[in-house]
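Subject: sequence -> structure tokens, single chain

Hey, anyone have a minute? Need the predicted structure for the following. Not urgent.
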Amino acid sequence: MLRPHSGPVKLLFSETTPDYAHYLYPYVVWAFLEPGETPADAFEAGFLPGNPEMERFYLVRNLRIPLREWKPSSENRRILRKSTNLRLELIPKSSFPDTPERRTRWISYADERFGQGIMHTERLDRLMAGPVISHLLQATDAETGAELGTALLHLAAPRVAYYYYAFYDLSDRSRNLGISLMTRATEFFTQAGYDHLYIGTCVTPKARYKLQFEPLEFFNGTRWSRNMEELRYLLDVDVPGRHRLDCPDYLAFQTSPVAAIAAASPFRAVTRPCPE
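Reply:
Had a minute. Here:
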């Protein structure tokens, strides 16, 4: 079994497309909780839920905001000022009015935002039925009561608030509802006393808008890092046919050589007899 010192889990390595010519044989790391472990342990170790049932988690470059240290940046403050008319209500999933009309709006949003058929009805139904969604953060217009957006969340107070999906009115461009809802959620869960707000993956330049939060941490494969120059390098520089840790340019962001990085890694191999 492989597991980090400070948290979960049983790990599996699920093989994905190799680059045989360059001796790259990639694996996706899947984690499974053991008795006594919770999803919050997986989040803290750098994993995100791999399915709505939270039966497995996957290791990925994801972001979290340390809420006990968060101070609104100038851009955050600008967005907060613009979004003062957003009224937020945190609703447990069991109490949320999940109507067919709302589902239709969410699917239409997803088709436009993510691509046709990415969030189909069956996927949304499974998502809403699973424990990965525990609460919803509803945003309405404080003056008119009109529904403006909804964030789907997994909460494990006080350790984890996971901002999973958000659906909002794409036609209302003046309010910039996407980043407004995320920024207001950051403020909301800071005031609620949470440790971290997890805001999803950061693997393509499209995720750059998330970098406006300070401080911000990303999981770099061995630890949570606050080095934003390292993260920008990972977003901007492609190294086809090579591992990152084989690249001197990337290693320049590390404070130790590879052997020392490995020595400091929280993951260790523990051998056990194989079951018959």
